Amino acid sequence: MRYTSVRRAARPNLTGFDPKAFAASAGTPANDPWARREAWRYTGPFTRWNRLKSSFPGLGIATVAFAVYCGYEYLFLKDDHHDEGHGEGHH
């Protein structure tokens, strides 16, 4: 035997009060007493970009140094050993 759920229509609101419309019309208060105390969290060194940037200190310098080393290795450190086979000449 399979049980099915019965979906009922929403009950009519007898008072006429719509909480969603009330929340939408309320918005943010004009004079928030805590706004000044919370503003420091999103300005200066605590902006989203500065927090992201300071999460990985030295990443930019390390990336440039690695790219320079890879270029140096590619241009100046040629390994001629790979042209030979690993056959009889290797003792």
UniProtKB/TrEMBL annotation:
This is NADH dehydrogenase [ubiquinone] 1 beta subcomplex subunit 3. It is a single-pass membrane protein. It comes from Lachnellula suecica. Accessory subunit of the mitochondrial membrane respiratory chain NADH dehydrogenase (Complex I), that is believed not to be involved in catalysis. Complex I functions in the transfer of electrons from NADH to the respiratory chain. The immediate electron acceptor for the enzyme is believed to be ubiquinone. Belongs to the complex I NDUFB3 subunit family. It comes from the Eukaryota. GO terms for cellular component: mitochondrial inner membrane. It is found in: Mitochondrion inner membrane. One of its GO terms (biological process) is electron transport chain. The chain crosses the membrane at residues 56-77. Keywords: Electron transport, Membrane, Mitochondrion, Mitochondrion inner membrane, Respiratory chain, Transmembrane, Transmembrane helix, Transport. InterPro entries: NDUFB3. Its main location: mitochondrion.
